[in-house]
Amino acid sequence: MNNMIIRHITSASNDEIKAIRALERRKERRETGLFVAEGLRHVIEGIENKWQLEKLIYAEKISRKNEIDRVRRACFGMGGSCIEVSDTVLEKLSHKDNPQQVIGVFKQRVTQLSDMKAKKCIVALEQVRDPGNLGTILRTVDSIGADGVVLIDQCCDPFSVEATRASMGSLFAVPIAQCSQADFIAFSKSWQGTVVGTHLSDRTVDFRSVDYKAPVLLVMGNEQAGLSPALADALPTLAKLPMHGRADSLNLAIATGVMLYAALESWQK
Questions:
Q1: Three-state SS for 107?
Q2: Among 18, 39, 171, 198, which one is least packed by beta carbons within 10 Å?
């Protein structure tokens, strides 16, 4: 077990604090394989889902003593380190006006596409750009008990602070795979169940008319451009959400949620 000494840091210019702050940048996250989760609830979610907690940072005057003691023991049990910091340091590390009292530095976890197993549904996202949308989709996937998320081609980073925060801890509960468009198309060809994407074309049908048979592979496109022509052409079924007002589209996270709940009804039959 790692050294169980709790270190105290009061200076925001400390090198270790600077290294944690550097995880704001995707380059640093990619090089280190680490990311930051803010808030006691999120840290507990990570621990309970058996993600590796490398560092636990918490306030000197932490209010929830019993919970932080449990989390601290878990961190030491994983070989991680614990750092007690001043309010000044917490303000530097946090992205909120009211800083969280607990911050965790976790090791990233990505599932291989070939290892993605589905009983109900997997959501695939092509070139999603908004980390808030991605985090919200992870939360929705977790909420309805779907099986995972696949990120196709150049997507935003699921381990960014924005995506992690928007997921409300669901990042730790939802398997995530990353792949190229070609690999995903090959994956979809062998899918045993319904494969459906949202897209407008001459073969698009109303989302309510799709015969959803589990497991469902739901494919959603980029926020601005939707699915690429190559991927849309490769999917056997294309669906749309009808627009009855002046707006011609829905936010990606909302549209994904509507599609998931439409498919969910078929699992309950």
A1: strand
A2: 18
Is residue 64 domain-shared with residue 145, that is, in the same domain? no
Buried b (16+ CB within 10 A) or exposed e, 84-101: bbbeebbebbbeeeebbb
- Residues 138 and 254: their CA atoms lie apart, in Å, by 12
- What is the C-alpha to C-alpha distance for residues 164 and 96, in angstroms, rounded to an integer? 14
Contact at 8 Å (CB) between 116 and 177? yes
At 109, is the pLDDT very low, low, confident or very high (cuts 50, 70, 90)? very high
Selection from 142, 268, 174 nearest residue 213 by Cα: 268
Q: What is the pLDDT of residues 163-182, one digit of tens each?
A: 999 999 999 999 999 999 99
Cα→Cα distances 135→8, 233, 262, Å:
32, 27, 20
Residues 84 and 119 in one domain: no
pLDDT-derived band at 97, boundaries 50, 70, 90: low
Q: Is residue 1 part of a domain?
A: no
Query: Which conformational region is residue 79 in: left (phi greater than 0), alpha (psi within -120 to 50 degrees), or beta?
Result: left
Last residue in a domain, options 72, 91, 107: 107
Q: Evaluate whether residue 185 is within a structural domain.
A: yes
User: Looking at the DSSP assignment, which residues form a beta bridge with residue 47?
Assistant: none
Range of the structural domain that residue 211 is part of? 113-267
Domain boundary pick from 107, 133, 168: 107
- The two structure tokens encoding residue 79: 């070989």
Domain count, the chain: 2
